[in-house]
Amino acid sequence: MPTPADSASDPMASLPVVHLCAEYWPFARTGGLAEAVRGIATFQAQAGRPTAVVMPFFRSIRERFDDIRPTGIRQSVRVGPRVENGALYELPVEPGEVRVFFVEHDDYFERGGLYGEGGWDYEDNTRRFGFFCRFVAEILPRIVDGPFVLHAHDWHTALSLVYLRTTLGNTPLARRSATVLTAHNAGYQGHFGPEILPDLGLAPSLWDWRYMEWYGKANVLKAGLAFSDMVTTVSPSHARELCTPDGGFGLQEAFTDLGPRLAGVLNGIDQDVWDPTTDPDTPAPFSAEDLSGKAACKAWLQEALHLPVDPDVPLFGMVARIVQQKGFDIVLGSEVMGRAPAQFLFVGEGDPRYQDALARFAARHRNRIATRFEFTERREHRMIAGCDALLMPSQYEPCGLTQMRSQRYGTLPVVRRVGGLADTVVDDETGFVFDAYTPEALDEALARAVARYGDGERWAAMTRKAMAEDFSWPRRVREYDAIYASAAEHAGLTTTG
């Protein structure tokens, strides 16, 4: 990976960047993507890089934010056989802040969900996000002058890079751009039938194993990889996993072929938002030097959960989407949870099968296990502050944010050695790490954690070490400086265009 660029001496460090995403906190969020893009963009702007974000103008955004204004930019774009009309809106911000733009198209984005409803994706998602990508590619000259980096996030925005390098490949816009694609979760790729190529105005030549064809389907993420100057994912370990049959989600050859154009950059957390000394959502403040407030947070949480208030019993928490990826198969197979001298809390919502099983599990162990099947940010803050340990036994985890937040609050993670979990938790120093995706391996790690908790001095030392870890965004932004410099070099881009 390239050495991080020095923003004081490298003109590429001030190259404008335009982020394209389907989610951006606080406007639209279903998971970590929204927070990750927010973190990258916010701290890039603070470091002096001109930064913009473009996303769809979903109904939920329109209903909750009344300060978003039309820019006056309206554009008709041809997408395959159709002429589609869109408009651009903007959130007023101060100079030097992230400019946030919203693409309006009532037929596509004036709906109840971001990607679908009732557990089903919208059938026209290719047209929805294909239009978004083509529209943005057309109006980029109205957003940014001179050379710039176009940074797309996940498959929903990957087609912007394809349009820029194919349909618009001979335009001045293409010649002054460098492209980066971040695969936050390569398990979601955008698989569709070959008919989407003419429907989206994509050249028939893209139906090729090197570009878009994937086992008889059109793969949007794969196409984005092919037309990116640089590709990133959200941890170094996950970048290596993506190049393997077990971790590549069927695209391991495409990721491997990228060679030095693939890099892993850990996400960060906003350490001003996640700060136990000032957190307004927790019952009491605390620090590594004075953990008495953490004890008060634990007692408050135990009482709120109707669990016995007992400082001598470790309280484990798990806050996550309740889906298979997060490891609920092995959680429900655990024997230690049913018999160890410990308490457990599960917070989240998702697959009814797992929720029902967790509810039955909790009913059998009312004094030891609690559930809350409704996620709120305040509940997440209170859980992380009040628990002694965090469970993240993920099947796969490209980066993960919760294990970073929990260490910031002295809540030691119990994690599986995958992706960003492997890169951010040190076994028996800042948490507990296991390898096999089995209930037995999870139980072994849980038993070790319970035993360590019995050694108060050792547990306190691990807590203080975890709280001292630096998961801040400025470190990651410097790594992205290097990525952008490499992308610009690959594109043959200079700061003079």
Q: What's the domain count?
A: 2
CATH topology of the largest domain: Rossmann fold
| Count of β-strands | 20
| Main sheet characteristics | 9 strands, mixed
First-residue to last-residue Cα separation = 25 Å
Uncertain segments of ≥5 residues (pLDDT<50)? 1-8
Strand content: 15-25%
Task: Give a summary of the structure in a few sentences.
The protein has 20 helices and 20 strands.
Characterization of this structure:
- Mean pLDDT is 94; it is low at 1-8.
- The protein is an alpha/beta fold.
- The two termini are 25 Å apart.
- It is built from 20 helices and 20 strands.
- The chain has helices at residues 32-46, 59-64, 106-109, 125-143, 155-165, 172-175, 196-199, 220-226, 236-241, 252-257, 292-304, 328-332, 336-339, 352-364, 377-386, 402-408, 419-424, 439-453, 456-467, 473-491, and strands spanning 17-20, 51-56, 69-79, 82-91, 99-104, 116-117, 120-121, 148-153, 177-183, 191-192, 213-214, 217-219, 230-233, 262-264, 315-319, 343-347, 369-372, 389-392, 412-416, 432-434.
- The protein has a 9-stranded mixed β-sheet with strand order 3-4-5-2-1-8-9-13-14, sandwiched between helices. It has a 6-stranded parallel β-sheet with strand order 17-16-15-18-19-20, with helices on both faces. A 3-stranded antiparallel β-sheet has the order 10-12-11.
- Helix 1 (32-46) crosses helix 20, helix 4 crosses helix 5 and helix 11 (292-304) crosses helix 15 (377-386).
- It has 2 domains: 11-268 and 474-491, Glycogen Phosphorylase B (Rossmann fold, 3-Layer(aba) Sandwich), CATH 3.40.50.2000; 292-470, 3-Layer(aba) Sandwich (Rossmann fold).
- The radius of gyration is 23 Å and the shape is globular.
